[in-house]
Protein backbone atom coordinates (compact mmCIF):
# COMPACT_ATOMS: atom_id res chain seq x y z
CA UNK A 1 0.00 0.00 0.00
CA UNK A 2 1.26 3.47 -0.94
CA UNK A 3 0.46 6.15 1.61
CA UNK A 4 0.94 9.88 1.06
CA UNK A 5 2.18 11.88 4.04
CA UNK A 6 0.80 15.41 3.73
CA UNK A 7 3.46 17.53 5.40
CA UNK A 8 6.20 19.90 4.35
CA UNK A 9 8.23 18.94 7.42
CA UNK A 10 11.08 16.62 6.43
CA UNK A 11 11.55 15.59 10.07
CA UNK A 12 7.97 14.22 10.16
CA UNK A 13 8.52 12.37 6.86
CA UNK A 14 11.70 10.72 8.15
CA UNK A 15 10.03 9.83 11.45
CA UNK A 16 7.02 8.23 9.75
CA UNK A 17 9.20 6.25 7.35
CA UNK A 18 11.17 4.92 10.31
CA UNK A 19 8.04 3.89 12.21
CA UNK A 20 6.56 2.10 9.17
CA UNK A 21 9.83 0.48 8.06
CA UNK A 22 9.62 -3.27 7.40
CA UNK A 23 5.86 -3.13 6.83
CA UNK A 24 3.83 -3.36 3.62
CA UNK A 25 3.17 0.40 3.73
CA UNK A 26 5.29 2.61 1.47
CA UNK A 27 5.45 6.31 2.35
CA UNK A 28 5.21 8.87 -0.47
CA UNK A 29 5.82 12.54 0.31
CA UNK A 30 6.39 15.98 -1.18
CA UNK A 31 9.80 14.64 -2.23
CA UNK A 32 8.09 12.34 -4.75
CA UNK A 33 5.65 14.79 -6.35
CA UNK A 34 6.32 17.91 -8.43
CA UNK A 35 3.90 20.24 -6.65
CA UNK A 36 1.12 20.25 -4.09
CA UNK A 37 -1.71 22.71 -3.50
CA UNK A 38 -1.48 24.83 -0.37
CA UNK A 39 -4.15 23.88 2.15
CA UNK A 40 -5.37 26.70 4.38
CA UNK A 41 -5.70 25.40 7.95
CA UNK A 42 -8.69 27.49 8.99
CA UNK A 43 -10.62 25.03 11.16
CA UNK A 44 -11.09 25.65 14.90
CA UNK A 45 -9.88 22.22 16.04
CA UNK A 46 -6.75 20.15 15.45
CA UNK A 47 -8.87 17.29 14.05
CA UNK A 48 -10.68 19.69 11.72
CA UNK A 49 -7.40 20.94 10.25
CA UNK A 50 -5.92 17.45 9.93
CA UNK A 51 -9.02 16.14 8.15
CA UNK A 52 -9.22 19.12 5.81
CA UNK A 53 -5.58 18.72 4.77
CA UNK A 54 -5.84 14.95 4.32
CA UNK A 55 -9.04 15.24 2.26
CA UNK A 56 -7.66 17.90 -0.10
CA UNK A 57 -4.29 16.22 -0.62
CA UNK A 58 -5.83 12.76 -1.11
CA UNK A 59 -8.22 14.23 -3.67
CA UNK A 60 -5.29 15.91 -5.47
CA UNK A 61 -2.84 12.98 -5.46
CA UNK A 62 -5.27 10.06 -5.67
CA UNK A 63 -3.40 8.32 -2.82
CA UNK A 64 -4.57 7.37 0.67
CA UNK A 65 -3.24 10.24 2.79
CA UNK A 66 -2.20 10.95 6.36
CA UNK A 67 -2.05 14.46 7.77
CA UNK A 68 -1.62 15.87 11.25
CA UNK A 69 -2.19 19.12 13.07
CA UNK A 70 -0.71 19.78 16.45
CA UNK A 71 -0.06 22.54 18.91
CA UNK A 72 0.37 23.69 22.48
CA UNK A 73 -2.53 24.15 24.90
CA UNK A 74 -1.80 26.27 27.99
CA UNK A 75 -4.36 26.03 30.79
CA UNK A 76 -3.62 29.47 32.30
CA UNK A 77 -4.31 31.02 28.87
CA UNK A 78 -7.70 29.31 28.42
CA UNK A 79 -6.25 26.85 25.90
CA UNK A 80 -4.17 29.27 23.84
CA UNK A 81 -2.23 29.16 21.60
CA UNK A 82 -4.05 25.97 20.48
CA UNK A 83 -4.67 25.77 16.72
CA UNK A 84 -2.84 29.10 16.37
CA UNK A 85 0.40 27.70 17.85
CA UNK A 86 2.49 28.21 14.70
CA UNK A 87 1.26 31.78 14.20
CA UNK A 88 0.74 32.79 17.85
CA UNK A 89 2.80 35.99 17.53
CA UNK A 90 1.65 36.69 13.95
CA UNK A 91 1.35 35.07 10.53
CA UNK A 92 5.09 35.13 9.82
CA UNK A 93 6.19 34.68 13.43
CA UNK A 94 9.34 32.69 14.18
CA UNK A 95 9.59 30.08 16.93
CA UNK A 96 11.51 32.68 18.93
CA UNK A 97 8.69 35.23 18.49
CA UNK A 98 6.06 32.73 19.63
CA UNK A 99 8.09 31.68 22.68
CA UNK A 100 8.72 35.30 23.61
CA UNK A 101 4.99 36.09 23.48
CA UNK A 102 4.15 33.01 25.56
CA UNK A 103 6.69 33.94 28.25
CA UNK A 104 5.38 37.51 28.34
CA UNK A 105 1.78 36.35 28.82
CA UNK A 106 2.83 33.97 31.62
CA UNK A 107 5.21 36.44 33.29
CA UNK A 108 3.12 36.71 36.47
CA UNK A 109 1.96 33.08 36.49
CA UNK A 110 3.73 30.88 39.08
CA UNK A 111 5.28 27.65 37.81
CA UNK A 112 2.72 25.46 39.58
CA UNK A 113 -0.02 27.16 37.53
CA UNK A 114 1.78 26.76 34.18
CA UNK A 115 0.21 23.41 33.26
CA UNK A 116 0.14 22.73 29.53
CA UNK A 117 0.01 19.93 27.01
CA UNK A 118 0.93 19.29 23.42
CA UNK A 119 -1.91 17.85 21.36
CA UNK A 120 -1.69 16.06 18.01
CA UNK A 121 -4.59 15.07 15.78
CA UNK A 122 -3.86 12.74 12.87
CA UNK A 123 -6.22 11.92 10.04
CA UNK A 124 -6.26 9.16 7.42
CA UNK A 125 -8.35 9.70 4.28
CA UNK A 126 -8.62 7.34 1.31
CA UNK A 127 -9.69 8.30 -2.25
CA UNK A 128 -12.76 6.09 -1.68
CA UNK A 129 -13.86 8.31 1.21
CA UNK A 130 -12.73 6.24 4.19
CA UNK A 131 -11.71 8.46 7.13
CA UNK A 132 -10.08 7.63 10.45
CA UNK A 133 -8.68 9.95 13.12
CA UNK A 134 -6.51 9.50 16.20
CA UNK A 135 -5.11 11.86 18.81
CA UNK A 136 -2.04 11.98 21.04
CA UNK A 137 -1.28 14.13 24.07
CA UNK A 138 1.79 14.91 26.15
CA UNK A 139 1.30 16.76 29.46
CA UNK A 140 3.79 19.05 31.13
CA UNK A 141 4.49 22.61 32.27
CA UNK A 142 5.84 25.80 30.70
CA UNK A 143 9.20 26.78 32.17
CA UNK A 144 10.10 30.36 33.10
CA UNK A 145 12.81 30.55 30.41
CA UNK A 146 13.95 28.75 27.26
CA UNK A 147 16.34 25.86 27.84
CA UNK A 148 18.13 23.61 25.34
CA UNK A 149 18.98 23.89 21.67
CA UNK A 150 17.25 20.82 20.23
CA UNK A 151 13.78 20.38 18.80
CA UNK A 152 11.68 23.21 17.40
CA UNK A 153 8.68 25.37 18.24
CA UNK A 154 7.88 25.50 21.95
CA UNK A 155 10.27 22.65 22.83
CA UNK A 156 12.71 24.91 24.78
CA UNK A 157 9.86 25.96 27.11
CA UNK A 158 7.96 22.69 27.51
CA UNK A 159 8.97 20.34 30.36
CA UNK A 160 7.07 17.05 30.05
CA UNK A 161 5.58 15.45 33.17
CA UNK A 162 8.06 13.16 34.88
CA UNK A 163 11.12 15.05 33.58
CA UNK A 164 13.17 18.01 34.77
CA UNK A 165 14.43 19.00 31.33
CA UNK A 166 12.68 20.64 28.38
CA UNK A 167 11.94 18.80 25.14
CA UNK A 168 14.80 20.82 23.63
CA UNK A 169 17.19 19.36 26.24
CA UNK A 170 15.90 15.77 26.25
CA UNK A 171 16.77 15.03 22.63
CA UNK A 172 14.95 13.27 19.81
CA UNK A 173 15.18 9.73 21.17
CA UNK A 174 13.16 10.50 24.31
CA UNK A 175 10.91 13.06 22.62
CA UNK A 176 9.98 10.66 19.82
CA UNK A 177 8.98 8.09 22.42
CA UNK A 178 6.78 10.25 24.69
CA UNK A 179 5.57 13.10 22.49
CA UNK A 180 2.01 13.81 21.39
CA UNK A 181 2.95 13.03 17.78
CA UNK A 182 4.66 9.75 18.70
CA UNK A 183 1.53 8.62 20.56
CA UNK A 184 -0.76 9.54 17.65
CA UNK A 185 1.59 7.86 15.16
CA UNK A 186 1.56 4.62 17.15
CA UNK A 187 -2.24 4.54 17.10
CA UNK A 188 -2.33 5.28 13.37
CA UNK A 189 0.32 2.66 12.66
CA UNK A 190 -1.72 0.06 14.56
CA UNK A 191 -4.83 0.97 12.56
CA UNK A 192 -3.04 0.86 9.20
CA UNK A 193 -1.26 -2.43 9.86
CA UNK A 194 -4.43 -4.09 11.15
CA UNK A 195 -6.69 -2.81 8.39
CA UNK A 196 -4.57 -2.16 5.32
CA UNK A 197 -2.39 -5.25 4.86
From TrEMBL:
Q: For this UniProt entry, what's an example GO CC term?
A: cytosol
Q: How is the cofactor bound?
A: Binds 1 Mg(2+) ion per subunit.
Residues crossing the lipid bilayer are none
Q: CDD domains from the xrefs?
A: HAM1
Entry cofactors:
Mg(2+)
EC class (word):
hydrolase
What are the alphabetically sorted keywords of the record?
Answer: Hydrolase, Magnesium, Metal-binding, Nucleotide metabolism, Nucleotide-binding
Q: Name one Pfam family in it.
A: Ham1p_like
- Do you know which InterPro entries this protein is assigned to? dITP/XTP_pyrophosphatase, ITPase-like_fam, RdgB/HAM1
Q: Which residues bind substrate?
A: 7-12, 70, 152-155, 175, 180-181
Q: Name one GO biological process term.
A: purine nucleoside triphosphate catabolic process
Highest taxon of the lineage: Bacteria
The keyword Metal-binding is assigned to this record:
yes
What does UniProt list as catalytic? Answer: 69 (proton acceptor)
Explain the purpose of this protein: Pyrophosphatase that catalyzes the hydrolysis of nucleoside triphosphates to their monophosphate derivatives, with a high preference for the non-canonical purine nucleotides XTP (xanthosine triphosphate), dITP (deoxyinosine triphosphate) and ITP. Seems to function as a house-cleaning enzyme that removes non-canonical purine nucleotides from the nucleotide pool, thus preventing their incorporation into DNA/RNA and avoiding chromosomal lesions.
| Subunit and interaction comment | Homodimer.
**What family is reported?**
Belongs to the HAM1 NTPase family.
**This protein is called what?**
dITP/XTP pyrophosphatase
Q: Which species is the source of this protein? A: Orenia marismortui
Traced from the root, the source organism's taxonomic lineage reads: Bacteria, Bacillati, Bacillota, Clostridia, Halanaerobiales
Amino acid sequence: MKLFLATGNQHKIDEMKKILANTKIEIISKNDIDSLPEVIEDQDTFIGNALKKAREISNYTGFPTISDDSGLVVEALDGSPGVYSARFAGVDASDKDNNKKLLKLLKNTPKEERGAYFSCAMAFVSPEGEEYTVTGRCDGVIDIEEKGSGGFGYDPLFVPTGYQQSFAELGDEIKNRISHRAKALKKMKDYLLNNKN
